[in-house]
Specification:
heterotrimer, A mainly alpha (88), B alpha/beta (404), C alpha/beta (347), A: 88 residues, Non-ribosomal Peptide Synthetase Peptidyl Carrier Protein, Chain A, C: 347 residues, alpha/beta, 10 strands, 33% helix, acyltransferase activity (chain C), Thiolase-like (chain C)
């Protein structure tokens, strides 16, 4: 699980071109979206990009943007969702 | 005192008809033009519904009255069909008899045809007649081809503001008339379905796999469509001196920007509200004068909330009758503003309010719902037609009855 | 279009060092492969990192030029934004076209599609400036900037206090190749500094952005007045001459869009012969040929009117005007199809 989360962070940074951010800067539970000053301050286009990442890297398709928003709350929630979709 | 701007000719082609009469007939019959594509090469052929014009390019050449040739894209052909009808209806034989400008609108130009040969074009090993399509990719190509074939030699321009493009073309033309630059302008837009735009909107996850459901709680997105529409606009003094048949008036308009997000409107509809309010002010009408609103109503999650909120804020508990006609035609992007301006004119002239097809459940965010069945024998004096798009580009038009 | 407006602020990113200080001592940058690319500035002082990360080249060039023109004007109140571009963000269009094929239409990144839309730069400027006023984008080859200018002049006449007007264009290697297949560029490789000496078909490719803050009223800071605009679509040579005669400008210099393409030089010959006793100032050896190159020409003309000089290295000694320049005619056409006359005046 830790490996998956670290890998996800690297992939997120690459997919969204987060130039000044390192994987260790991203807290597992920090909010990815929103302007609150905390978290990464991503927007709805980033959320679409992250769904592309899930599909290309993990072959998980998120159809409904409303559902997507929940899955993409944090790195933790993304990792949980990916685990739940992978065969045990 | 600036001139009033009258509409003296209209022409169109959409998924529900090859001309204005054909469109009216299907609107009246409440028959949607949505279905599955026959002409785009896509993996979504049988998955994502579209509003496709029911003609192959070959048959469009015939409708457009031009010999089959390389280099004329579907965008151009659709535009030509609509243009010929508009000019004919306005009784314009020789375009050069009166200086006439042409303002066109397009979102992706001739992409419909260039995307089929793009990789041949970029391959130095390949040569052939596809090279005739090289310069058709940009938005000016269709405008100039149409202009050259029907004979526009004066001011020409092409506007691209995404889904509000042809509404802005109408506005620009009307303003040129009011400035006294021309007495007659032909304005509108043309859009052909492409694999590019279909995949583009699909990548935004806002294309519905079912027929689109504007203003419905269960809506999940739009269906793309194609078509073209042009309106002949004339100054009041010219129209009267020329004895033109006046169909209606373009009495108000406004263009605003959301400045909120690259692809989403503000959730409370600030831009939409301002566009409608200013267009009404220009037209000199109040809320009570609005008989019908042909809403943008794409059926995307964001548009319908934003537009609905704007309606509630502007009109309070007295929101006029409204419907989206996109379940008939699909969202025709650059052509939508002009197509729906003609539908607005038809509502006035025929005393009809068109139904918002596929609606069953009111949105939880709103207190209002659209007209769901055809209403006949209604007195329609003023219609607002909304077009809102990417990049925050909003446009509202007011079309009014001519009481001549 | 009659009516007068003033250039209160402006900025250009181009293949020359136009974005930097000390314009008049700028060097002359050139190419010998027929493609003049923009000299791009550091975007970080202009665009927040969180916005910059997603933006493609055209968006950065367009937005940054617009922001600098706004700053240069010292105007803070929002007004309409009108732009022109022939091709928009080609890089994004090409990328999305390719990804559709590579990924067989599944799991596509939306960003290139969004940025490929022609109004994306305008939308970004509005977003960045929180500007909810009128917003329009013209996309018509050599009439793109010109229609934006016409729209802006109409807005000023209709009562707007000021309008931000601009143009932007990029060239990619792929698009350079595409256009080479239909004769846009010279088939022989030339030194761009000698563009006008090569009397052969085609020109050299260029790109760039230029933005202007236009106002109803002049100030001490104004660069120039725009005093007239006339467009001609696919005119005959006779029509160009008769229009010029009817337009009848009395000017001190002609800024000419001459681009070394022997197929269309005759139009420039007509205009230059009509004004045979005054300086003819070319600019395509500086910016290359592209749909909205006339915006660069207007930027150059406005600088000349305000400062009464031209960057020394950009022109031969005898090309620098020796008398005061109070009125300029800018004449440009794009491959013989879209012709534009713009009248500029000293303030």
């Amino acid at each position: 699980m830790e490996d998956l989360k670290t890998k996800l962070k690297v992939q997120i940074i690459e997919a969204l071109n987060l130039q000044d951010i390192k994987p260790e800067d991203i807290d597992d539970n920090a909010a990815l979206f929103g302007d609150g000053g905390e978290g990464l301050g991503l927007d709805s286009i980033d959320s679409l990009e992250l769904m592309v990442l899930m599909e290309r890297q993990y072959h998980i398709k998120v159809e409904d943007p409303r559902e997507g928003r929940k899955i993409l709350t944090s790195v933790q929630s993304m990792a949980d969702f990916i685990k739940s979709k992978q065969p045990a | 005192m600036a001139e009033r701007v009258y509409i003296t000719g209209v022409g169109m082609i959409t998924a529900i008809g090859d001309d204005v009469a054909g469109n009216l007939q299907q609107l009246h019959a409440q028959k949607s033009g949505l279905g599955y594509t026959r002409y785009i090469d896509t993996v979504y052929k049988n998955v994502l519904p579209v509003g496709e014009v029911k003609h192959s390019n070959q048959s469009l050449f015939e409708l457009a009255g031009v010999p089959i040739q390389e280099g004329l894209t579907r965008t151009t052909l659709l535009g030509l069909v609509a243009m010929r009808e508009a000019l004919q209806q306005a009784g314009i034989g020789d375009l050069n008899a009166v200086p006439t400008g042409f303002i066109n609108a397009s979102t992706v130009g001739g992409m419909c045809d260039t995307e089929k040969v793009y990789f041949d074009i970029t391959d130095p090993e390949k040569d052939g007649s596809f090279l005739k399509f090289i310069d058709t990719l940009d938005c000016a190509d269709c405008t100039q081809r149409i202009a050259d074939i029907v004979g526009f030699g004066e001011h020409i321009a092409t506007i691209s503001t995404a889904c509000s493009s042809s509404a802005n073309a109408l506005m620009f033309g009307a303003r040129m008339i009011k400035q006294g630059l021309y007495d007659r302008m032909v304005c509108g837009g043309t859009e052909a379905l492409t694999r590019f735009t279909l995949n583009g909107f699909n990548s935004l996850k806002n294309v519905d796999k079912q027929f689109c459901r504007p203003f419905d709680q269960q809506r999940t997105g739009l269906n793309l469509g194609e078509g073209a529409a042009y309106l002949v606009l004339e100054s009041e003094s010219f129209a009267k001196a020329n004895n033109s048949r006046i169909l209606g008036e373009l009495s108000g308009y406004c263009n605003t920007n959301e400045a909120f997000h690259p692809t989403s409107p503000s959730p409370d509809g600030d831009g939409a509200l301002e566009a409608m309010r200013s267009a009404m002010a220009m037209s000199g009408i109040t809320s009570n004068d609005v008989s019908y609103i042909n809403v943008h109503g794409t059926a995307t999650l964001n548009n319908d909330i934003s537009e609905g909120k704007a309606l509630e804020r502007l009109f309070g508990s007295q929101v006029p009758l409204f419907s989206s006609t996109k379940p008939f035609t699909g969202h025709t992007l650059a052509a939508a503003g002009a197509i729906e301006a003609i539908y607005s004119l038809l509502a006035i002239r025929q005393g009809l309010i068109f139904p918002n097809l596929n609606f069953s459940e009111q949105m939880e965010e709103l207190q209002i719902s659209p007209v769901t069945t055809l209403m006949e024998n209604v007195t329609v004096n003023h219609v607002i037609s909304n077009s809102f798009g990417f990049g925050g580009n909003n446009a509202s038009l007011v079309i009014s009855k001519y009481e001549g | 279009m009659k009516g007068k407006c003033y250039i209160q602020g402006m900025a250009a990113i181009s293949p020359q060092p136009t974005f930097e200080e000390n314009l008049f001592s700028a060097q002359l940058l050139y190419t010998d492969n027929n493609l003049l690319p923009c000299k791009e500035p550091d975007y970080k002082p202009f665009i927040p990192a969180n916005s910059l990360r997603r933006m493609s080249r055209m968006l950065k060039i367009g937005l940054t030029t617009a922001l600098k023109a706004i700053t240069d004007s010292n105007l803070t109140v929002q007004g309409p934004i009108v732009t022109g571009t022939g091709k928009g963000s080609l890089q994004d269009t090409e990328k999305f076209l390719k990804e559709i094929v590579t990924y067989q239409e599944t799991a596509l990144n939306p960003t290139p599609f969004i940025q490929s839309t022609y109004n994306s730069v305008n939308g970004l400027i509005a977003l960045q400036q929180k500007c909810t006023a009128y917003n329009n984008t013209f996309v018509h080859r050599g009439f793109s900037f010109e229609n934006a200018l016409l729209d802006s002049m109409m807005l000023l006449q209709e009562g707007s206090d000021h309008v931000l007007t601009g143009a932007f264009e990029e060239i990619t290697a792929e698009h350079f190749y595409i256009k080479s297949r239909i004769g846009f560029w010279k088939s022989e490789q030339i030194d761009s500094r000698e563009l006008l000496l090569h009397n052969t078909p085609g020109s050299v490719a260029g790109e760039g952005a230029a933005f202007f803050m236009l106002t109803q009223e002049p100030t001490d800071q104004s660069y120039a007045a725009i005093n007239g605009l006339k467009l001609l679509y696919k005119p005959s040579a006779e029509k160009v001459l008769s229009t010029l005669q009817a337009f009848a400008p009395e000017v001190d210099a002609v800024i000419t869009g001459r681009n070394g393409d022997c197929r269309f030089n005759h139009f420039y010959n007509i205009v230059e012969q009509h004004f045979d006793n005054i300086p003819h100032i070319p600019f395509k050896h500086l910016c290359g040929e592209y749909d909205t190159a006339s915006a660069f020409g207007m930027w150059l003309g406005a600088n000349l009117l305000k400062h009464q000089e031209l960057p020394e290295a950009w022109f031969a000694k005898d090309q620098h005007p020796s008398k005061p320049i109070n009125k300029i005619l800018l004449y440009n056409h794009f491959y013989g199809e879209q012709h534009a006359f713009i009248l500029l005046e000293r303030v």
